Structure to design on (226 residues):
């Protein structure tokens, strides 16, 4: 039974570029949430997707956007990258919006 | 919004001793409190969770207690082992509509000394 998978594992970009991160939820899960984890800190909620719609959003600017596909996989897009966007981006999936969330290994994004 | 404070930031215990990590939350509407263990370079792993209609929950050597009145919850690990060494995060969540946003504490680095 495959868990939450994320790609790529590492990514290096320069300021001003845009990036797309991908997430496949655990089998049987239909809800995907995205988090940003800076070094030495706890994850911060970006947004949650269910039934292909953004259901809730954290305190992140519009440069952060997402999408969920009919097969429940999801993408996180970040435009106009800033140095401060360097972080581990975690995807978590759950079986319903109000259920325990299980995390993937994350994508380590470095901005030069 | 919700704010979660976690203490201590670092904790060292001898193998076999108990470890306790405490968290407080600010939003009285929060009703779900998970704990995650994150080893270096690995994903956060859900180890136990509790809902607001329960005061205590146990799973082998791990237990979580919740005091809704005081708005704090704690993780208790008994008979600690070296493999328990990791960063532990508490989180709190209320259900806004049907969506669930987790607000995390800043983490506790637990080191179990052999």
């Amino acid at each position: 039974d495959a868990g939450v998978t994320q790609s790529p594992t590492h990514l290096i970009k320069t300021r001003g570029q845009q990036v797309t991160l991908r997430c496949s939820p655990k089998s049987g899960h239909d809800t995907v949430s995205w988090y940003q984890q800076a070094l030495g800190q706890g994850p911060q909620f970006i947004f949650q997707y269910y039934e292909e719609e953004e259901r809730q959003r954290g305190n992140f600017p519009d440069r952060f956007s997402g999408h969920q596909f009919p097969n429940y996989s999801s993408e996180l897009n970040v435009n106009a990258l800033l140095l401060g966007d360097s972080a581990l981006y975690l995807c978590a999936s759950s079986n319903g919006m109000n259920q325990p969330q299980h995390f993937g290994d994350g994508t380590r994004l470095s901005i030069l | 919004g919700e704010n979660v404070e976690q203490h201590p930031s670092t904790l060292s215990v001898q193998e076999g001793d108990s470890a306790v990590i405490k968290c407080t939350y600010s939003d009285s509407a929060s009703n779900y409190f998970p704990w995650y263990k994150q080893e270096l370079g690995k994903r956060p792993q859900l180890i136990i969770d509790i809902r607001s209609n329960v005061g205590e929950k146990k799973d082998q050597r791990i237990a979580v207690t919740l005091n809704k009145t005081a708005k704090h919850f704690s993780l208790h690990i008994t008979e600690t082992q070296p493999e328990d060494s990791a960063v532990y995060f508490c989180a709190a969540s209320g259900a806004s509509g049907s969506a669930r946003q987790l607000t995390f504490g800043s983490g506790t680095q637990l080191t179990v000394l052999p």
Q: What stands out?
A: Chain A has a mean pLDDT of 95. The CA atoms of residues 55 and 62 of chain A lie 15 Å apart. The interface with chain B takes residues 4, 33, 35, 40-45, 48, 50, 55-56, 58-59, 90, 94, 97-106 of chain A (CB under 8 Å).
